[in-house]
Known about the structure:
The structure holds two protein chains of two kinds.
Chain A: E1 3-8, E2 14-19, H1 25-31, E3 50-53, H2 55-61, H3 66-73, E4 83-85, E5 99-102
Parallel strand pairs in A: 1-5
Antiparallel strand pairs in A: 1-2, 3-4, 3-5
Chain B: E1 11-15, H1 19-30, E2 36-41, H2 72-77, E3 80-84, E4 87-91, E5 96-99, E6 104-106, E7 109-112, E8 116-118, E9 131-132, H3 137-147, H4 151-154, E10 160-164, H5 168-179, E11 183-188, H6 200-212, E12 216-219, E13 223-230, E14 236-243, E15 248-250, E16 253-256, E17 260-262, H7 265-269, E18 278-279, E19 291-293, E20 298-301, E21 308-309, H8 314-328, E22 340-345, E23 348-354, E24 361-365, E25 373-379, E26 382-389, H9 395-404, H10 410-413
Parallel strand pairs in B: 1-2, 1-7, 2-3, 7-19, 9-16, 10-11, 10-16, 11-12, 18-20
Antiparallel strand pairs in B: 4-5, 5-6, 8-17, 13-14, 14-15, 20-21, 22-23, 23-26, 24-25, 25-26
Amino acid sequence: MPTTIIAVDRDGTRHSLVWDEDQTLMETLRDNDLPVLASCGGTASCATCHVYLEEPVAARLGERSADEAELLADAEGFRECGSRLSCQIGHDAAHDGILVELAPEG
Amino acid sequence: MRENIQTASPAVVIVGSGHAGVGVAAGLRSRGWEGRIVLIDAEGQLPYERPPLSKDLLVPGAPAEPVPMRKESWFESRGIERVHGTAASIDRGRREVRLADGRALHYVKLILATGSTPRRLTVPGADLDGVLMLKTLPDARRLAAELAPSSDTAQDAARHVVVIGAGYIGLEVAAAAAKHGCRVTVLEFQDRVMSRVTSEPVSRFFEGLHGRAGTEFRFGAAVTALEGTRSPDGAGRVEWVVTADGARHRADVVVAGIGVIPEQGLAADAGLEASDGILVDAGGRTSDPDIYAAGDATRFASLYDGASQRLECIQNARAQAEAIAADITGQAPPAPEVPWFWTVQHGVRLQTAGVRHPDDDVLLRGDPANGKFSVIYLRGGRVAAVDTVGSLADFNAGKKLVAQRATIDPSLAADPSLPLDQAIAPLEPAAL
């Protein structure tokens, strides 16, 4: 069974995407033409792949790394619970059906 | 990979498959371009990320494969044709790109994303085996093999690695070599590391970091020759690096990281304006309305101060690619991100937003002794660039200040306990 997620664009449009096993969440969003800049290529060096996850999903991921926490702390629209760098989220079948919302740019 | 080039069918032809080339292809499709897109790729492999070549791919236990920029299926599903070949010339009258093997591709728009090549050593002995440079995946694999030779050839003694040039690439290689247990010497002509891109406090911090890992530095060092024992047919392997002061540095491997040269030959031969970079405007346009250029190969006026510049960074390649895709599809280009750069050495990250000038005022924020600090560069009282070392807490704030050309209160900005964006303040009248 493929892992499918719902991505919510910045204008509220919902897209159903298949998340391939060999990709991070950022790569899945980017390769499906969601406007994710991801300018560092997935190395937790910028915050341009910032997304919001629902609380139980974010909780399942555990603590953010130091780099991720520092980058997100002053990112536009930071939410203590739910803000994540999508490049740091690997595929997990347990994420099937999750809702991923793009955070504002900037 | 498709090789059946339909020469009669018009296409956007892109020369080069780095971030700039792939970025134009991606941008065109996401903006609704339905015509053919042909990506000419000299390496003949799935386009890959280059930053890891000097970092993750060199250290012990490195992954065997590079990180692909996009999956094979992504290129296929978007109908982006990949052609393995080397572009040899442009016939602007016929709107054709000729490949070295004689094939010709007709274009409606041509994008030159030809990148750059490492500057070569020109001293005697530079042709000896064991003298390496780093740009491509094959370069990285060759270097990784030299740093960690198989056990039957390694003997017991640590290998001597001499790095020429203490820029990003040289220092990343030095760090990887030290991790392999090599004895590393870095020869640098200037008086400190990374002198082109950063200030004294950052240079000294990174020098210390490498020094504690056993790496030795020789500043003011001008390499005059490489020496090795040659067989009668002239082949030989490097053994020594000689500097102008007469010193001889033992070397099993030499890595030159002495800058890059923009690949402008294709453009210049076709009569396009080029001078240490293909000249383009803010939209990536060359002096021919049907030809664009993007990435390391280009030279253009800074959006911030109008200075003529080349920017060797992914941000620039992608911003130019987006501008070109927007122009071809008749859309407004997005505002470019502030140029930014990063390096990781011995696990410590230096990340820079904006482009520093040597005569900028330098403001230290935090204490380098703590391993986490920032440096703010002020030009005419406005934030021109920000270096962050060992911490990314100031990076996004710094990027915003650079984008706004913000003015700050230096005493507030120097206090790391205050968020950087709280230091924004009107210019002192004296500075106006």
